[in-house]
Amino acid sequence: MDNPIKITSPRDERVFIRVTHGHFVTANAHINHYVGTSDIKHNHIVSTDTAMLLAEYYTTRGIEVDTVLCLYETQTLGAYLAHELARPSMMSPNPNPNVYVLGAEYDAQGNIIFRDNLQRMIKNQRVVVLMSCITSGKTIERAIESVGYYGGTVVGISAAFSATKYINGIEVNCIFDEDDLPNYEAYDVRNCPLCRQGMPVDALANGYGYSKL
């Protein structure tokens, strides 16, 4: 497990990820690089600049957003993103002034549920699903299904890093992708070459971080 390498966005030098090489196990895959997004989620300066970059995608395309659904501790980033989407600009002179920000609550089966007092922020609303790091896209797929159960429509997917360009036909709006990590690989849990080579697992990883073994 190597020391992390800092990769900076060419669009904004204050936006960065930290990439660690190793053997990591996620809920849906084995990966050879862990993409650290802690600063994007928890550092005020990095988070606000990241939100500005992500918001450009929606304002330049005229995509209207009512709600930002935040997965895995992205509520701070989601709040800044909502602020940018609600702020008038040349591309969006009359944006929606009321953009909701919701954190995800899961049931025992891993489905996202919305309490009765929050359902109005999903039903008949245009929703952006926000996640810090996307590998296979399966977590996003389940979020899209859950939004649909409550009568909402997902109009966008945003992430700091994504190894997937499209999920359910929706383009992923991300700052970093596989072109920034040319050696990044995600493997099926049943057919992992790192496991076949006898390489021990360094850590278990999810949207909150990783835990060394």
List the helices and strands and how they pair.
Elements (H helix, E strand, L loop, with lengths): L4 E5 L2 E14 L4 E7 L1 H5 L1 H18 L5 E4 L4 H11 L14 E4 L1 E2 L5 E2 L12 E9 L3 H12 L3 E10 L3 E2 L2 E7 L9 E2 L5 H4 L6 E4 L2 E4 L1
Parallel strand pairs: 2-13, 4-5, 4-8, 8-9, 9-11
Antiparallel strand pairs: 1-2, 2-3, 3-12, 6-7, 10-11, 13-14
Helix pairs in contact: 2-3
Question: Into which percentage range does the β-strand content fall?
Answer: 35-45%
Number of strands: 14
The CA-CA distance between the termini, in Å, is 11 Å
Largest sheet: 6 strands, mixed
Count of helical segments?
Answer: 5
Q: What percent of residues adopt helix (DSSP H or I)?
A: 10-25%
Low-confidence stretches: none
Shape estimate: globular
* Structural class determined from secondary elements: alpha/beta
Look at the structure and give the mean pLDDT. 93
What sequence of helices (H) and strands (E) makes up the elements? EEEHHEHEEEEHEEEEHEE
- Backbone CA Rg: 17 Å
Question: What do you see in this structure?
Answer:
This protein has helices at 38-42, 44-61, 75-85, 138-149, 193-196, and strands at residues 5-9, 12-25, 30-36, 67-70, 100-103, 105-106, 112-113, 126-134, 153-162, 166-167, 170-176, 186-187, 203-206, 209-212. It is of the alpha/beta class and 213 residues long. α2 (44-61) packs across α3 (75-85).
